[in-house]
Amino acid sequence: MPTALPARSTLRRLLKGAVRPHAGRLALAGVMMGLVAVMTAALAYLLEPAIDQIFVARNPVALWAIPLAVIAAALVKSVADYVQSVQMAYVGQRIVADTQLRLFERMMAADLALLHGTHTGRLLGAFLYDAALLADAVSKAMVGLLKEVTSVVLLVGVMYYQNWQLALVASVGFPLAALVMRSLGRRTRKTSTRAQAETGTLAALLTERFEGIRLVKAYGREAAELGLVAASINRRLGHLMRTMRTKAAGVPINDALGAVAIAGAIFYAGHYSQSGGMSFGAFTSFLGAMLMAYQPLRALSGLHNSLQEGLAAADRLYDLLDIERKVADRPGAAALVVGPGEIRFEAVSFAYDDGTQALAAVDLLVPAGQTVALVGPSGGGKSTLLNLIPRFYDPSAGCIRIDGQDIAAATTSSVRGAMALVAQEATLFDDTVAANIGYGRLGASQAEVEQAARAAAAHDFITRLPQGYDTVVGEAGVKLSGGQRQRICIARAFLRDAPILLLDEATSALDTESERQIQATLQGLMKGRTCLVIAHRLSSVVDADAIHVLADGRVVESGTHRSLLAQGGLYARLYAETTEPG
């Protein structure tokens, strides 16, 4: 992952990416905040004429004019405060939504290697927590800082207008408060980063344990898992409490500095007023402005900490958003034109990011309209070879051609659109049966979905479900049996109706009887298509047109089932090991 950006770089990027699109609403909110600050200062200023003109001079005009001015200022302040609150609420929620959409779009376009290397908990943490902190940094902290700073500046302006010497005494604590805020803000950003990292760890633990709950219960590991989760929760609590203690320290420190400033101002003002240098009304106005400035000064500390939390969240989000894709369309890439569907591997090699060599100069042909099987020991490179065809990865060397076209020079969408995949894991979404089958082709009609289900021998059991095709299958299809889930996946592939079919151990997770039934269904799906099959049970590929045996990333044997058995090599040994007696 990229390292965290410096605070200023992150802030500039945040301003450009999150603030600029909402400049109009933020400008309106800023104007309203400025109006709130002006009206707050006006209320402080009106204290002087209220006392001097009403209570001292007993001016009859001032008796009604000044209260009306106070009401008018309060009304304007309230309306402006409402407008800015609504605008900022919208901007905040829009930023959360936009950030989540950008992140999801980025992850959907990301390389499979990245997604496999990034835990789901890390991604969930970014979606659910970091995006909200980022929004707070913009909608509350950044613009709120503007509001509170403006209020402080205007109220201090009133103080200096009334008596600049007295204002100097009262302002002595401002630089110290600024230093305190800066120091606490840095610490907040550091502890917040650790807290959010542990949040991702906790989300990862919970996701894995909930998904593996059957295994946890079967092996009696409830207490051990509770200990792991409790340790993560307590670590997260520790980081959060350090963050809260740091944030909480700002208020009492600023309160103490403010109290010293107020005490000094009162002492100086009392001494100054005894010599007749300041009226009671002017002092009251000065004191009112100083007390009113006290609240935004307190708020500034919390807003600055929120900004630092948001910047830390932005660092984590940008780490994900900035990862470069390795599998991407070349400039000027053209759509793949698929005819018969021949697949040819030419000196294809592949190594993972950690340097592990998975394939070494593989030459292999899958003739159009034929079924070719890949078999061999685990780790031999079978799945890697299959995953290169839909460009889940790109070869480190060599090329793959479909009907003579280098797939690396074609658009990724057109390459994947030419094939259907049925994998060992029957991937279903928590949606209806019809929606899961319809996932194979956007816009498919109900009649087409049912036709695909009939072709996959799934229609009968689907109609027996409580709501038929409208039955929700549950998370990962938990409400269905393994064989039913796989039939729905095969129906999805039927609906796809692609010229190339990739079968990645599509029946290895099933029992023998279910496998026989599914295998018969697959024969119908494979008919007339170019098929590449990975099989664990070699009995399922004895009728393949060609079988290639992979070991250590190389093709070590090739031929038909009969010819490979006759060779008495690796295939013959594997067949003997995986074929049931009788």
* Total of helices: 20
Structural class: alpha/beta
Question: Main beta sheet: strand number and arrangement?
Answer: 6 strands, mixed
Which CATH C-level class of the largest domain is it? Mainly Alpha
Q: Enumerate the spans where pLDDT stays under 50 for 5 or more consecutive residues.
A: 1-6
Mean pLDDT: 80
The multimeric state of the shown protein is single chain
Beta-strand content estimate: 5-15%
- N/C terminus separation: 54 Å
Instruction: Tell me the Rg in angstroms.
Output: 35 Å
Helix content: 55-70%
Could you spell the SSE succession in H and E letters? HHHHHHHHHHHEEEHEEHEHHHHEHEEEHH
Short précis:
By secondary structure, the chain is an alpha/beta fold. It contains 20 helices and ten strands.
Structural summary, described in words:
The protein is an alpha/beta fold and 582 residues long. It has two domains: 7-199 and 247-321, Up-down Bundle (ABC transporter transmembrane region fold); 343-578, P-loop containing nucleotide triphosphate hydrolases (Rossmann fold). Helix content is 64%, strand content 10%. The protein has helices at 7-19, 23-45, 47-56, 60-109, 112-117, 120-162, 164-170, 173-211, 213-218, 222-274, 280-321, 382-388, 412-417, 433-438, 446-455, 459-463, 482-496, 512-526, 561-567, 570-578, and strands at 343-351, 357-366, 371-375, 397-402, 405-406, 419-423, 500-504, 530-534, 546-551, 554-559. It has a six-stranded mixed sheet with strand order 6-7-8-3-9-10, with helices on both faces. A four-stranded antiparallel sheet has the order 2-1-4-5, covered by helices on one side. β4 and β5 form a beta hairpin. α6 packs antiparallel against α11 and α15 (446-455) packs across α17. The radius of gyration is 35 Å and the shape is elongated. The two termini are 54 Å apart. 37% of the residues are buried. Residues 1-6 have low confidence and may be disordered.
